[in-house]
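Case study.
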Amino acid sequence: MAILVGPETSVICQGMTGRAGSYHIERAMAYGTKVVGGVRPGKGGLQHLDVPVFDTVTEAVSQTGANASIIFVPPENAAAAMIEAIEAEVPVVVCVTERVPVLDMVRVRDALEGSKTKLAGPNSQGILTPKVCKLGVMATAHERPGSIGIVSRSATLTSEVVAQTSASGLGQSTTVGIGGDPVHGVGFVECLEMFMEDPDTEGIILIGEIGGVDEEMAADYLKSVKASKPVVALVAGRHAPPERRMGHAGTLTLFGRADANQKIKALRSAGVQIAPNSHQVAETMRQSLST
Amino acid sequence: MNLHEYQAKDLLAGFGIPLPVGDVAQSSSAAQNVARRLPGERYVVKAQVHAGGRGRAGGVRIVTSVAEVRQAAEELLGQTLVTDQTGPEGRTVRAVYVEEAIDSERDIYVAVLVDRESGKLALLGARQGGEDIEERTAEKPATVQTFLLKPDGAPAKGTLDAFAKKIGLTGRLTAKAATLFEGLISAFLKNDASLIEINPLAVTAGNELVALDVKMVIDDNALFRHPEMKNFQDRDELDPVELKAQENEINFVRMDGNIGVVVNGAGLALATHDMLSDLGGVPANFMDIRTTATSLDIAAGFDLLLSNPNVSAVLVNVHGGGMQRCDTIAEGIGISMKRNDRLVPIVVRFAGNNADYGHTLLRNYGISYTVAQDMGDAVERAVTLVRPEAA
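After joint prediction, the assembly is written out as follows.
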């Protein structure tokens, strides 16, 4: 079953005719992802990579029946592209674009409220259900179909943990990159909820880092439900260089919640097993599963 | 991008925020000239550096004559100011802000920022502002009031009035505060800020509000919308090495250890530092090669690393992804090693996309290095290399 993307996923790409879009969509197609169309205003009616290009998302969805979109639109127009996909009620959207202005993301979050869309990103490597569907830009060499759900703020650490879980025989049900930006679409909590419901997922690995509040929100959530599956977390940045800062407010809103050790403490108190380092994440999961 | 106080005040003046009269000066005679034009007989001379905590560090002087303004400016300009936010190396003062002194009966705290938990704009306020607000809030978070805003701007006046009352602004002050909040939110949205903080916001004996100190940060990702801010960046405030790295699509932070670190991706870089530190290693730098960096960018980044005389070993930990492959990074390292006359032991761990090709490239460049099998192995080898007995 996996979560978010599976055999039934059919994909359109917003910004497919650009260099990055073309490159990654070609690879996604080669992986076996069902790509049914692209969107590029002004290029509707053309064919690109053997699929039709449309002017708008609504048109692309109604013509192709797509139920997922991946966005490679430059930062200037990325928010408009995300909002267009949300308004067209595309169920699953990945935004790969980096450096989207934070106020634009505030507007996107507003559009997401009460919508039918689950957005991963921006600045996300995407969503991968091994050997079935790649809605993203991640390298695919070490992934194996399996039982571990991975949700992460970091693309390279995901690759690291994917390789480990494959080597240890566990494999992955789905991996989700929620992106490293301060304001983003789905967070740890929504992904934990989906993985808890997913019959294919037996354990969940959460890859966090310093900054933000996603880890604390995950801890609060896990305390509020009875977790039916083991959750292992890696929180990177215990020895991070001290951050330059200005003023007090950044710390104020977080109420001191950004420090790696505090995040670890919060997660541990919610019953999460903490991986001692990024090299022993799969091992920690194996131990959790066998107890 | 951090703004100086004088830049922020300049911007906020256009949004109706009440401010003391003042101007910036780069020399003591200019400071004296500014003071001559100011109302009143008491002046404040403030060091312009990108850091809070200036008052406690002696960077803010209150004086009572134009001559004393000159003297204060002379003392501050060129001085290295060390505050609790600058780190031990401090910041050189290159400009001062001279303004009329305002007597505050009461110091309030007000800020607008993006709240990461809700993904919304938030208006923050506290009855008691001042430099120690952070410590007080850590003990008692409830002292700060938060109001979440719609993304399109300020809420109705009545709502803002209610917020003003919550932070103790009653009577005539309520409406004045509501107008100030409106201006602040509008300034935030129009300038693509990620933080505006007024601390303190003074309540005067005459029942006026005056923004005594302002901190403002602009979202770097939105600078493409603000060509007018091009000249706001104070390059003197930035580390030249880090700036050079930024220009080459690399996030770089100088640290004081002896192991040079090369990693792609911030998360993996943080995790590598954690493992190094756990084994007693001390990194000489933090390096996160962005997905957009070319081999020439990476070579420039590696040059920066090699230019640090403290580096006695280099740890390369790269997990090639869909966007940044091992061979690109190998090529960058190769180019840099060829043009730098520096022999330093290198441990390389390549995984993921084009790992084998990366090793082939490094060998073709004639570089001798140690191959590590995995991340744990790589970190252990790097730490062993810098142990005294290994030398």
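Observations recorded in class. Chain B has twelve helices and 18 strands. Chain B touches chain A through 73 residues (CB under 8 Å). We will return to this complex in the next lecture.
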